[in-house]
């Protein structure tokens, strides 16, 4: 009984990042197996949980967890290589954390934290940028 109680405590204290689903990397690198730009890897339109699959929960235009649904509120989250949160990969222009919100921290072309800023986090010459065609990009995590 004591072991069962300890197991329950451990599961309740488990960080959310350990429970998240790895969906690949947001990257312009078509040769990286984990890149969403690789049509034979994480970017495959046939991957069951892929963001490029229109029938998966993360690629369907009707799913609340989709990157393509303009009304999604539970879109996948982006994290850079250091584990820093970089917003939600979402087509929702009204979500404050969306990469599509042109006035938000993660979508504005003027914000240093935005992948849409070619002089900030989205600079294609930065090794950690998702726009670098030779980099690893940012990790995409779903629920």
Automatic annotation (TrEMBL):
Residues 1-20 form the signal peptide. Residues 29-143 are annotated as: Disordered. The keyword Signal applies. Keywords: Signal. Residues 29-39, 61-71, 111-120 have a biased composition (Polar residues). The keyword Signal applies. This is Uncharacterized protein.
